[in-house]
């Protein structure tokens, strides 16, 4: 019984591993190796093919950062709610859609009043504020209907309710707003491009990236420094202990949903500015992307949501040109969602705690 | 003397099963009271019901003049009730300083808060050395000090302590018990729940023995130490 454990460097380590591992481990290892091989071969092919110039890659990177910061804004809502309730808000993508439409109507009203281009510096913040208000309101309604009744019950009911709310929102929006693609009225000053370090970049992309950074910085400051942020962190760590020091747990949960919804609203408006068109069904796909970003970074971790969003955005923007192109696929950009969702699956299998996350689920009984 | 805590006919149930049945007791202002009892007798259940973390089926809880039976937990803290929970339940990813400050979360009297913080650091000088450290990295005894300090930062009139000496080394147990005494000496009413019955009874003005959800014996602490049933059941002497 007193067998000396072999270290991994000893020659017997591999046979020892073979003996201890199951066929599931072997399959997982095979998947790991083949994914790595696919990426490496694709990378080698993509870099040598020379289809794209260095300038192209820089502009892909900038686009990746822009869409990544929008993913990060959505991911924050998932991760904040998860941090506090240990639940995923499956209607969060549709909160973003509602925020986006709130921005659309605000922009339309400002345009009708002739203010959109007369007061450009005021109009954009107003549109963003409308998006935030729409997102926050929707998020509060979801909290009230799907989550609060189950606050003291351990069940999956909130998740099912949230999925139900997601469909209610989508089809209510379809009935009220129609299924056609909608576009924000043009902000005159956002048309065209600027030349940045010798690169041609569309203005909305820069505006979206900067706006996202400002909002993200504001949120991180709020959580790190304000009393509300401190209360949110306390509730996330231990709900009962937080109540015992006089924190109104219910109010903190409501505030968390409101803030997450406002972030999603900003994301919805910025998405509309960059991609020029929105539909009532946009919430599902973008919601899953935001969810993937939150998982990628480590769910429950704010910095992780930020990192996960940017990594996902960059992977989607650079992946087709860098990796898929190398296989000579005819239309690599049609496959960018394969990269996004593929990363979600891979992360869940191989690193479920995400890039920055800890294994929390088992710690909290 | 006036009643600091008055519990009458408290019944608490988990589903169909009553964990605590028709329990009544009173703690006078300025006293140290203790509830002793075996594992599963319902001690923690009672404390959690007092704090509002568990719903009661019937009965009432009065804190001083106020009926707090229906108040949510954070409102009870505002009325002057605080608990040091079992297992300490610190915010492990916050520093000692943040844990103490968050104890005063609901208070707006900044000068008094600062005064109380100095007071806590005087009571537990060790915390001054650990001030910027993450609470999760402290030793068990130090964590207990933070937990007590955090509860004191709410400026309680009545302080509930759930197994504060559990798992601590003997000299740390003495330090914690001594701190309880000093806090009480400053006018805070204390309700102490302990499995370490001897330490608790030694300092208690009033003691309740809880058995299967009912109070079966009441008396002052030193008297109960000599009570034959307490001696055999909780202090480990032969009957």
Cα distance spanning the termini of chain A? 35 Å
Strand content of chain A: under 5%
> What is the overall silhouette of chain A?
globular
Number of helices of chain B: 10
Give the total of domains of chain B.
2
CATH architecture of chain A: Orthogonal Bundle
Keywords (chain A): Amino-acid transport, Cell inner membrane, Cell membrane, Membrane, Transmembrane, Transmembrane helix, Transport
Transmembrane segments (chain A): 27-45, 57-78, 90-110, 122-141, 153-173, 193-220, 241-263, 295-318, 338-356
Main location (chain A): membrane
Protein name (chain A): Branched-chain amino acid transport system permease protein
Reconstruct the topology from this structure.
The complex is a heterodimer of chains A (365) and B (239).
Chain A: H1 13-20, H2 23-49, H3 54-85, H4 92-112, H5 115-118, H6 120-147, H7 157-177, E1 193-196, E2 199-202, H8 203-225, H9 227-237, H10 239-244, H11 249-275, H12 282-297, H13 302-324, H14 336-350
Antiparallel strand pairs in A: 1-2
Helix pairs in contact in A: 2-13, 3-8, 3-11, 3-12, 3-13, 4-6, 4-7, 4-11, 4-12, 6-7, 6-11, 8-9, 8-11, 9-11, 12-13, 12-14, 13-14
Chain B: E1 3-14, E2 17-28, E3 32-37, H1 43-51, E4 58-63, E5 66-67, H2 73-78, E6 81-84, H3 96-103, H4 110-123, H5 126-129, H6 140-152, E7 158-162, H7 170-185, E8 189-194, H8 197-203, E9 206-211, E10 214-219, H9 221-225, H10 228-234
Parallel strand pairs in B: 3-8, 3-9, 6-7, 7-8
Antiparallel strand pairs in B: 1-2, 1-4, 4-5, 9-10
Helix pairs in contact in B: 3-6
């Amino acid at each position: 019984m007193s067998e000396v454990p072999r270290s991994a460097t000893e020659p017997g380590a591999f046979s020892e591993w073979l003996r201890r591992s199951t066929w599931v481990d072997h399959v997982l290892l095979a998947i790991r190796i083949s994914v790595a091989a696919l990426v490496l071969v694709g990378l080698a092919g993509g870099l040598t093919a020379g289809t794209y110039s260095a300038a192209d890659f820089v502009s892909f990177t900038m686009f990746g950062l822009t869409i990544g910061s929008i993913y990060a804004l959505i991911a924050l809502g998932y991760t904040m709610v998860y941090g506090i309730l240990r639940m995923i808000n499956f209607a969060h993508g549709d909160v973003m859609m509602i925020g986006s439409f709130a921005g659309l109507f605000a922009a339309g009203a400002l345009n009708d009043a002739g203010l959109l281009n007369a007061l450009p510096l005021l109009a954009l913040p107003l549109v963003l504020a409308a998006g935030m208000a729409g997102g926050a309101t929707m998020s509060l309604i979801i909290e009230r209907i799907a989550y609060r009744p189950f606050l003291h019950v351990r069940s999956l009911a909130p998740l099912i309710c949230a999925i139900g709310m997601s469909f209610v929102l989508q089809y209510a929006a379809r009935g009220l707003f129609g299924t056609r693609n909608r576009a924000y009225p043009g902000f005159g000053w956002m048309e065209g491009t600027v030349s940045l370090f010798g690169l041609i970049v569309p203005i909305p992309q820069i505006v979206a990236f900067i706006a996202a950074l400002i909002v993200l910085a504001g949120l991180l400051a709020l959580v790190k420094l304000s009393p509300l942020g401190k209360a949110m962190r306390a509730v996330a760590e231990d709900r009962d202990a937080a109540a015992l020091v006089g924190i109104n747990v219910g109010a903190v949960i409501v505030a968390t949903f409101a803030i997450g919804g406002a972030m999603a609203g900003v994301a919805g408006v910025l998405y509309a500015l960059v991609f020029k068109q929105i539909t009532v069904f946009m919430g599902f796909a973008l919601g899953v992307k935001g969810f993937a970003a939150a998982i990628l970074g480590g769910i429950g971790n704010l910095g992780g949501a930020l990192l996960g969003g940017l990594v996902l955005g960059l992977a989607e923007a650079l992946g087709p040109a860098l990796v898929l192109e190398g296989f000579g696929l005819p239309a690599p950009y049609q496959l960018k969602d394969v990269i996004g969702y593929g990363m979600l699956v891979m992360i869940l299998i191989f690193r479920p705690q995400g890039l920055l996350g800890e294994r929390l689920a088992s710690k909290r009984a | 003397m006036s009643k600091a805590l008055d519990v009458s006919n408290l019944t608490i149930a988990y589903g169909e099963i009553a964990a605590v049945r028709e329990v009544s007791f009173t703690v006078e202002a300025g006293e140290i009271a203790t509830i002793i009892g075996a594992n599963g007798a319902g001690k923690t259940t009672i404390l959690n019901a007092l704090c509002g973390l568990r719903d009661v089926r019937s009965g009432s809880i009065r804190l001083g003049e106020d009926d707090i039976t229906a108040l949510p937990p954070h409102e009870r803290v505002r009325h002057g009730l605080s608990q040091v929970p079992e297992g300490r339940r610190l915010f492990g990813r916050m520093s000692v300083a943040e844990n103490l400050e968050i104890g005063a979360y609901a208070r707006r009297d900044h000068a008094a808060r600062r005064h109380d913080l100095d007071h806590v650091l005087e009571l537990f000088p060790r915390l001054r050395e650990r001030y910027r450290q993450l609470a999760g990295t402290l030793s068990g005894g130090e964590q207990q000090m933070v937990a007590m300090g955090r509860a004191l930062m709410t400026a309680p009139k009545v302080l509930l302590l759930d197994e504060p000496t559990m798992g601590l080394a003997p000299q740390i147990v003495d330090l914690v018990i001594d701190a309880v005494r000093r806090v009480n000496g400053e006018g805070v009413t204390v309700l102490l729940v302990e499995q370490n019955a001897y330490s608790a009874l030694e300092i208690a003005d009033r003691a309740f023995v809880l058995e299967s959800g009912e109070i079966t014996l009441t008396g002052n602490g030193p008297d109960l130490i000599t009570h034959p049933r307490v001696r055999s059941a909780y202090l480990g002497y032969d009957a």
